[in-house]
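User: structure tokens for this one?
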Amino acid sequence: MHERKVYKDYQESDLQEVFARAHPSSWQDLIAHLEQYGLSIHHITPGETAHMIADARQASIDNVPFPQSVDQAYRVMKSHRNPELVRQEEQRWIARTAEYERERQEQRHQA
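Assistant:
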């Protein structure tokens, strides 16, 4: 499970990569993209994905308008961090990562 760390926090460059792929126009767009593709972006860990989702959810809950730039989104997301929400997302992504890795191993054995 190399680089599949669940407790690793994200950097602005990670969020920049997600913005480049997803072109989100709302917190919900960003969350949906991360939910769908988070485990398949190989240089972004499950932990970084979990933390981005938790921070974007909290910004949405707090009714923060969605920023148009990555640097603004990064600052907003980090400043609206809810440690309990982060912990919940980490736990969810531990399970998702384990399932993803199991499926990948099964596919390798079938090939």
